Amino acid sequence: MGRLEQDQELRAALRATAGRKRREMYGLGVYVRGLIEFSNICKQNCMYCGIRSSNRRAQRYRLHPDEILECCKEGYELGYRTFVLQSGEDDWYTTDMLVSLIMEIKRKCPDAAVTLSIGERDNECYTRLFQAGADRFLLRHETASASLYQSLHPTMTFDNRRDRLRALKEIGYQVGAGFMVGLPGQSLEDLAEDLLYLQELDPDMIGIGPFIPHEGTPLRHEPAGSLETTLDMIALTRLIIPGALIPATTAMGTAHPYGRELALQAGANVVMPNLSPVAVRPKYTLYNGKICTGDESAQCRFCLELRIREAGFDMDMGRGDSLKR
Ligand code: 5AD
Description:
This protein is of the alpha/beta class.
């Protein structure tokens, strides 16, 4: 038997093992989070990201807090019980504004969880947002290699990233970390470091997706990360941190027509359909070819529900808190 075939067998076994572990921990339910991409204005300049500050061609937008609240109310009526508020690092949204928004969402949708994905802020801000009722916070570590991190993030530091993740945990958030697979210059050793870092941090949520080039970035000509390697990383993550909430990311669905289904089979157990107003969706492009940005995607919930069932899982509209809580 050739090496590739052997690898393929090993891969299949790894994914099946991770699939069983996920079933043991979470059953066949897939948690659903309504994603609201509320601003693509960003002060950072990450080399891979389509909304980096120096991409002049990005069409920038910002949703008013009332519009964000409206998205949540619509989602709530559709049955969503987690809202992920994601944006570039946009200081137009002051701590005070975010505090009132979170309190309003919690008032209108009392049994829903609020997840923030707004990047790096100071301890005071993180603490006040938590006190206002935010439950969870996503801040991918992006890569556990200090040198790779530094080369990809000219406006940020590796140490600060780790410090922010620690702070979020200490404040009491359910914390999400995660990384990209196939970043230019990333080695398999670097990916092993990602897994070791996750084991040490022990986050509640872990987002993993392939790097996909964006035409408006310096990495436009670099090859995309491998879907197979990304699936390997998802499966290994499920085995190393069995209780983690692991999304089948949009980047997986962009890399392959069945990428999200494959991720679920390899141990993922969360999906994040887009709840953003359809008019702004095409503008929140972190990478080329992003799926679910057209008119036809207005009702992501129903499309995903079908696909989840087809893949052998059940959609779970509950809050889906971390097993650690
Ligand atoms: N390819 C894949 N993922 C990307 N992200 C940003 N840009 C890209 C890209 N070009 C990921 C980062 C970020 C998350 C919101 O999206 O990991 O944390």
